[in-house]
Amino acid sequence: MLVQAVKITNYLFIFASLRLCVKLFIQMSITENKIQVGSLEWFYRESSPIGRTDLLPVLLLHGLPSQSYSWRNFLPALAKQGTRAIAPDWIGFGFSSKPEKRDFAYTPDAFITALEEFLKSIELERFSLVVQGFLGSVGLQYALRHPEQIANIAILNTPISSQAKLPWKIQQMGLPLAGEMITQDPLLVDRTLEGGSRYVITDKDLDIYRKPFLKSSAAGRSLLATIRNLQLPSAMTEIESGFQKWQQQILILWGMIDPWLPLKIAQDFVNPLALGDLIKLNNVGHYPQEHYHETILEDLLPFVRVKDVS
């Protein structure tokens, strides 16, 4: 009996050690990187495939006032699947460059041009696209202008209709005079992310979201400039008309308790699509990836498991 107990203990120890090794290996496959592209420095998180893979990479784009850290629970899962995934901080956000408005216009066109140059620099030619939130919509505009690069698209609570309006919580950050003060308050991140998601976010995670605002006033100025130059009505017109002719698969994962973007927006968008699916996420708000990554990944992982046939 003692021998059997020792054997069982040894097996359990070996099993636990193997699980730890796999976990550490996955963590090691997630890197934080910086790359200089012209006058702009991009910060991005990347998951490297474990072993060789024939799967296309995935590009994950965050919304306002977030950063690539919002995809922290997606990157390990993609790495484990064998998918290379890149999650950049938009210019002006997170740990990427925060140029003054005279040097960067903070319009959709400016973001799209910068993203185009970034993708060239990291040699990302064809990929699955995952977007979320206000500013994630710029990723959809990029897709319409570069359809040859896009294998398929997953949309998480992103403005995709002329019905979409910038919520007051974000609008007020762009107000004359008041906006200059509001966007210098690091706690705006707490109020916006928790208000939009409808759930508490841990201090450990909020510390990372706040850090750019605590480090420099440039983070607030970039957010202010982005909100004032988002050009949402014209962006929505481009998205509504452009995707009527879209021929690649689109998966919409929509938080049902989003206080800013109602479900009808997603339903109206997906109805005319030739290859569109809508998955409703109960008890999920505007930032689905913050609290419900496991639920989302059940559908997202197989969706982006696309073989590279080039």
Q: What is the tally of beta strands?
A: 8
Shape: globular
Order of helices and strands: HEEEHEHEHEHHHHHHEHEHH
CATH-level-2 architecture: 3-Layer(aba) Sandwich
The helix content, as a percent range, equals 40-55%
Strand order of the largest sheet: 1-2-4-3-5-6-7-8
Strand content: 15-25%
Main β-sheet description:
8 strands, mixed
Please tell me the overall pLDDT: 92
Q: Domains counted in the coordinates: how many?
A: 1
Which tags fit this structure?
single chain; 16% strand; globular
Write the layout of secondary structure elements.
Layout: H1 2-28, E1 30-37, E2 40-47, E3 58-61, H2 75-81, E4 85-88, H3 108-121, E5 127-132, H4 136-145, E6 150-156, H5 168-171, H6 178-182, H7 188-197, H8 203-215, H9 218-228, H10 232-242, E7 250-255, H11 263-270, E8 276-281, H12 288-291, H13 293-303
Parallel strand pairs: 3-4, 3-5, 5-6, 6-7, 7-8
Antiparallel strand pairs: 1-2, 2-4
Helix pairs in contact: 3-4, 4-10
Report what the structure shows:
With 310 residues, the protein is of the alpha/beta class. It has helices at 2-28, 75-81, 108-121, 136-145, 168-171, 178-182, 188-197, 203-215, 218-228, 232-242, 263-270, 288-291, 293-303, and strands at residues 30-37, 40-47, 58-61, 85-88, 127-132, 150-156, 250-255, 276-281. An eight-stranded mixed β-sheet has the order 1-2-4-3-5-6-7-8, with helices on both faces. Strand 3 (58-61), helix 2 and strand 4 form a beta-alpha-beta unit. Helix 3 (108-121) crosses helix 4 and helix 4 (136-145) packs across helix 10 (232-242). The longest helix is centred in the N-terminal third of the chain and has 27 residues, at 2-28. It is globular. Residues 11-28 have low confidence and may be disordered.
